Amino acid sequence: MLEINDLVKTYPDGQQALRGCSLTVPAAEVVAIIGPSGAGKSTFIRCINRLVTPTGGSIRLDGEELTTHRERRLRETRRQIGMIFQEFNLIERLTVMENVLAGRLGSVGFLQAFLRRFPAQDVERAFELLERVGLGGYENSRADALSGGQRQRVGIARALMQEPRLLLVDEPTSSLDPKVARSIMALICELAGERRIPALINIHDVGLALGFAQRVVGLNAGSVVFDGPPSAVDEAVLTRIYGADDWRDAFRQEGEEDRHLGSREAVS
Asked: Domain ABC transporter: where (predicted)?
């Protein structure tokens, strides 16, 4: 279980990115975090694994306080938090298998990691994960030869190689075609459920959030302004999160993308 209480982030220039955000996420629940640009969505996600250091508040994972960890303990905790990035964060010149096995770098010795000599059970697990994310047979392909959707699937497999207690996902579909974006969102939600891992997904696409997440959290100006099931998200809620016009524009743009997908080959 993830428990966040009164999370605050104020930058040195005085900008207050988060203003006392609180959230509890039980095991296996998928939570979509939505809101306009600058609402604090990415800061919220990155405070949890301390890529950004919070100014105040509490973050507990299975009862363990994360905000007070020093460098060594923080590294150990990060091994247990899988992160899926918007820009994939793959090493382009390495193979798919090498990128997936990078998820075990924090759990093997330095020499093993340097020589890329991973235990047989890690290699076997990597093959299993590649099959599960739809990339069976791609293990020897270079990352830079893959499509955007395939790269994101490698990133998902790499995160799961850590055997995480929590998944943090930062804009996983923003650079993908609508059809591929839906398949990636579905995959993340399925995997979180199968492994009973809580997942927080920062996502700009309201339609995907409502269609796949079990719960939606809306941020505006660094504050939680909505927290509830997708079925409770109506025009009034979207207006509270985005403003009167912004959410309508977002849905209109999504519809236009779907209509124009037509003759384009969807990249998977």
From this structure: 2-246
**What is the assigned CATH class of domain 2-80+164-260?**
alpha beta
The dihedral sign for the CA sequence 60, 64, 65, 71: negative
Provide φ and ψ at 7, rounded to 5°: -75, 130
Residue-by-residue pLDDT tens, the chain, 268 positions: 899 999 999 999 999 999 999 999 998 899 999 999 889 999 999 999 888 999 999 999 999 999 998 888 888 888 889 999 887 789 899 999 999 998 887 666 544 555 567 788 999 999 999 999 999 999 999 999 999 999 999 999 999 999 999 999 999 988 889 999 999 999 999 999 999 999 999 998 999 999 999 999 999 999 999 999 999 999 999 999 998 756 566 555 444 444 433 333 333 4
pTM of the model: 0.86
The Cα 33–Cα 201 span in angstroms is 6
